[in-house]
Amino acid sequence: MLLVDSHCHLDLLDLPQLGGRLEDVMERARADGVGRMLCVSITLEDFPRVLALANAWEQVYASVGVHPNERAGHDPAVAELVDIARAERKVIAIGETGLDYFRSSGDMDWQRERFRRHIAAARETGLPLIVHMRDATEDTLDILRGEGAGVKGVMHCFTGDLATAEAAIELGFCISFSGILTFNSAADLREVAARIPEESLLIETDSPYLAPVPHRGKPNHPGHVRHVAECLAGLRGVPLERIAHVTTNNFSRLFGVEMVA
After folding, report:
1. What CA–CA distance (Å, rounded) separates 154 from 140?
2. What residues contact residue 261 under an 8 Å CB cut-off, 6+ apart?
3. Which residues contact residue 112 at a Cβ distance below 8 angstroms, ignoring those fewer than 6 apart?
4. For the chain, give me the number of helices (H) and strands (E)?
5. What is the pLDDT along the chain (261 residues), one digit of tens a residue?
6. pTM given for the model
7. CATH code 3.20.20.140 for 3-216+227-255
8. Which residues partner with 98 through β-bridges?
9. Domain ranges for the chain
10. Strand 34-39 vs strand 3-8: parallel, antiparallel, or unpaired?
11. CA distance 44 to 65
């Protein structure tokens, strides 16, 4: 059985809290059946660390992009994102990008323009787009409809309703569920997860954030994606092995990574 963590931030892990070495984190992931992970970029300043991790570990891949809430660092042009993605074989996605009106306020034109540039880079490279969407559903979908022709990707850490998920799927996006799915407060989200078509399912940790039950409030790491998979299997009434098979193959197909569970 092979599991994939489709969204994590290995460069942000608090290693002392997780045993002190990245080797220990990787071994725990392996022991839990996690054979691949996508380490996602949130700033260009930190991208070299993300890329170094991907190049150092066969099972780790990278994305390149700037998180919608990041304002202090360099804001890349389309050509910069394209050049980096084309130059680095372990870069398999653009992002994370998108819109977040929860943490940012005021005039959001800067955020929407950055999102459009990332969409353009995904279209030019042919790589999937990793979309962060919080309190911005209508604008996110409208921009994807207007700018995203031919672009595929993933709605990361999805917390929306079924109509939003179906709209994203119609646009060519997979729906990725994180540890939030296991929270007591997530009954509505679990109902959505039970109804998403198999071919659109992905799982993630978003570690070091959002540790799933029974580790909620503790440090999160890629090995904990197994708890998300177990929760999803229970919701859908299928064996864990089925969820592993489906989500791993979906990851392989979306990101062009050769591995079939």
Report:
1. 13
2. 1, 2, 244, 245, 248, 249
3. 99, 139, 143
4. 9, 8
5. 999 999 999 999 999 999 889 999 999 999 999 999 999 999 999 999 999 999 999 999 999 999 999 999 999 999 999 999 999 999 999 999 999 999 877 789 999 999 999 999 999 999 999 999 999 999 999 999 999 899 999 999 999 999 999 999 999 999 999 999 999 999 999 999 999 999 999 999 999 999 999 999 999 999 999 999 999 999 999 999 999 999 999 999 999 998 744
6. 0.96
7. yes
8. 132
9. 3-216+227-255
10. parallel
11. 7
* Overall size of the chain counted in residues: 261
Pull the structure tokens for residue 255: 């990101």
Closest by CA to 122, choosing from 146, 152, 145, is 152
- The DSSP secondary structure of 170-218, one letter per residue, reads HTTEEEEE-GGGGSTT-HHHHHHHHHS-GGGEEE---TTS-PPTTSTTS
The CA distances from residue 110 to 42, 115, 153, in Å, are 16, 9, 22
Q: Which helix (H) or strand (E) holds 118?
A: helix 109-125
According to DSSP, the β-strands at 201-203 and 173-177 are parallel
